[in-house]
Amino acid sequence: MKKFALTLSATLLGTALFAGHAQAAGCGKPRNAFDTVYCAGNLFTQTDKTLNQTYTELRKQLNSAQQNALKQSQLAWIKQRDAQCSREDSTGYFVNLDCANTMTQERLDFLKERQRECSSTGCETSKLAQ
């Protein structure tokens, strides 16, 4: 059975994004690498949940062609995130949680911007497909 390993490159961006929630969860000052990975994993879970909720809400505002464009864009983004932030080799699976957190937050921001745009000026299929 392959080992599952998580790697994390600690950056100020990742720490800043997690600061508010981290304090409450005891992640303000991780004691070791395991604490850091635990906290980054919690951040990823929370951000990914919000991303999925936002995606679902945005889809409700779209016609079927726009929904399809958004879905294809989302699938392409997932492939890109996975390619950039993870790898598999003979020793196991490796996920850079800092990378995954950053990319997920960027995609969440993109989806929220599309949501605002759809609510105010109307949805543009070409932007949904990005």
Give an overview of the whole structure.
The protein is mainly alpha-helical and 130 residues long. The protein is built from 5 helices and 3 strands. The protein is 71% helix and 11% strand. A 3-stranded mixed sheet has the order 1-3-2. It is elongated and about 50 Å long. It starts with a strand and ends with a helix. The model is unreliable at 2-24 (pLDDT under 50).
Give the key terms.
130 residues; mainly alpha; three-stranded mixed β-sheet; 11% strand; disordered N terminus
Bulk shape: elongated
Low-confidence stretches: 2-24
What structural category characterises the helix and strand content? mainly alpha
Query: What does the largest sheet look like?
Result: 3 strands, mixed
Strand fraction equals: 5-15%
